[in-house]
Design goal:
- With about 475 residues, the chain is of the alpha/beta class.
- The protein folds into two domains: about 30-385, Alkaline Phosphatase, subunit A; about 395-445, Arylsulfatase, C-terminal domain (2-Layer Sandwich).
- About 25% of the residues lie in helices and about 15% in strands.
- The chain is built from twelve helices and 16 strands.
- It has helices at about 55-60, 75-85, 110-115, 185-200, 225-230, 245-270, 320-325, 350-360, 370-375, 430-445, 455-465, 475-480, and strands spanning about 30-35, 65, 70, 120-125, 145-150, 160-165, 165-170, 205-210, 275-280, 330, 340, 345, 385-390, 395-400, 400-405, 410-415.
- The strands form three sheets. Strands 7-6-5-4-8-1-9-10-2-11 form a ten-stranded mixed sheet. It has a four-stranded antiparallel sheet with strand order 13-14-15-16, with helices on one face. The chain has a two-stranded parallel sheet with strand order 3-12.
- Helix 4 (about 185-200) runs parallel beside helix 6 (about 245-270).
- The radius of gyration is 21 Å and the shape is globular.
- The termini are far apart.
């Protein structure tokens, strides 16, 4: 097994991480983030219908975090927080328009690890800089990135092309005119690229970033896909327009589980299982897809505890708990205790300092704190003074069990999460001093945004218009004749 225990400088919030001694044999790192995977959408969390045996195995062999939060409640900003280590009051990309970029001068997880000699590859949905912008992945530490740069492009699994290092890769048999039909499923190509990268770099340290799009929709799937075969005849009723989509969503979760199982098998085959730390999480809180009268919290209840009936408030797009709480698992055989569970409070700014410490790399200034001591059951774990989020006119601060929230139009609210995880009881009036302190923190945590640049808007718009929404159909038909 690669060397692990060495001395490191303590990572301190808002300070530059101290120089650390590079590991002689740093571990491989896989970071897999599923799009809109809900906190309760897996078998080990008690879900009665979604089939996730390999994810359940992953949890049994690793550590599960019960108190992990996304960087933001939507796709693009949460990716920006994850990759830069800056919370949403500091990050340079806070919109969710699909193509807005981070700045050219910003370090990322990949650029930090690349300096240490890691091979760096990404496969999936980038979302923090479309083609023709300052945010493209190949300019931010990735040797290769294959998939979707623009997240609206990622709304279809049968696009005309995917993108590798800003170059188009045509997908055979896809005209891009349908969400549901085509010959080449994008996730199959992205998964194949993920596997190829791991095989190619098995003899050197690698960082494999996998921001896969499923189970997020729209939900197109091959008719002969084995996961679809398991669910296509389920007699579920989720509304006239969504019966099929609900079945495809379940198939997508099983497909992701199946592909995760293949990666785990590959690590064993290559004899690098114990040399690889593997993160598995969702990108933001769940969304109440396919809700019915009988299932008002979404057909699969992503934020609903199937055992207790308690529900995280709201969902994707909201800074209430339902928009931020994510499933978060870490597996590292021999270094992380199998089947362990932690209530350590963490969020996505913590990923960069954690991975820097795991690898023995220097780390730029972030808003995060390494949680490596938690992973390895070691002493010295630092705690956050507070966690901060902002998005689309909303603001939230958590300090200990207190959480303050302000919506787009309303005033500040205050919740005691230890007693009120569902955020039903606003106790602002009873604890005015606590709220005053959290509001002051929120004001100090926000900085005016310094955005990235768009250099070629025509190229950026081209990818943005590839998903076959009605407004794009004429454009897509015209491009078929170019």
């Amino acid at each position: 097994m690669k060397a692990f225990f060495q001395s490191f400088s303590v990572v301190v919030l808002f300070s530059l991480v101290g120089v650390v001694e590079a590991r002689e044999n740093p571990p491989n790192i896989i970071y897999l983030m599923l799009d809109e995977w809900g906190y309760f959408e897996s078998g080990h969390m008690g879900h009665p219908e979604l089939l996730t045996p390999h994810i359940d195995q992953f949890a049994a062999e690793g550590m599960r975090f019960t108190n992990a939060y996304a960087g933001a409640p939507v796709c693009g900003p949460t990716r920006s927080v994850l990759l830069t280590g800056l919370h949403s009051g500091h990050t340079s990309m806070r919109a969710n328009d699909g193509f807005s970029p981070i700045r050219a001068d910003e370090p990322t997880l990949a650029s930090v690890l690349k300096k240490l000699g890691y091979a760096t590859g990404g496969f999936g949905k980038w979302g923090i800089g479309g083609r023709g912008t300052s945010g493209v992945p190949e300019k931010h530490g990735f040797d290769t990135f294959f998939g979707y740069y623009d997240q609206v492009h990622a709304h279809t699994f049968y696009p005309r092309y995917l993108v590798r290092n800003s170059e188009e890769v045509v997908l055979p048999g896809n005209d891009g005119l349908s969400f549901y039909e085509g010959e080449t499923h994008a996730q199959g190509e992205i998964f194949a690229g993920s596997i190829e990268f791991i095989r190619e770099h098995a003899d050197e340290p690698f960082f494999c970033y996998l921001p896969w799009t499923p189970p997020h929709g729209l939900w197109g799937i091959d008719e002969d896909d084995p996961s679809w075969q398991l669910f296509k005849d389920q007699p579920w009723k989720a509304g006239q327009q969504t019966d099929r989509d609900a079945r495809v969503y379940a198939a997508f979760m099983h497909m992701m589980d199946r592909q995760i199982g293949e990666i785990l098998k590959l690590l064993e085959e290559l004899e690098i299982d114990e040399d690889t730390i593997f993160f598995l999480c969702g990108d933001n809180g769940g969304q109440a897809y396919f809700n019915t009268k009988e299932r008002p919290h979404g057909f699969f209840g992503p934020n609903l505890n199937p055992e207790t009936g308690a529900r995280f408030r709201a969902g994707k797009g909201s800074l209430y708990e339902g928009g931020l709480k994510v499933p978060f698992l870490v597996r590292w055989p021999g270094s992380i205790e199998a089947g362990s569970v932690t209530d350590h409070l963490c969020y996505y700014p913590d990923i960069m300092p954690t991975l820097a410490e795991v690898a023995g790399a220097g780390c730029p200034k972030t808003d995060g704190i390494s949680f490596l001591p938690v992973l390895t059951d070691s002493e010295g774990q630092a705690q956050h003074e507070y966690l901060y989020w902002e998005y689309a006119g909303q603001t939230a601060v958590r300090r200990g069990d207190w959480k303050a929230y302000r919506g787009k139009k309303g005033g500040w609210e205050l919740y005691d999460l230890a007693a009120d995880l569902e955020e039903k009881n606003n106790v602002a009036a009873q604890h005015a001093k606590v709220l005053e302190e959290l509001v002051a923190i929120a004001k100090a945590a926000h900085e005016p945004i310094r955005k990235g640049e768009i250099f070629d808007r025509e190229l950026t718009d081209k990818d943005h218009r590839q998903a076959p929404h009605q407004r794009n159909v004429e454009y897509l038909r015209a491009t078929l004749n170019e």
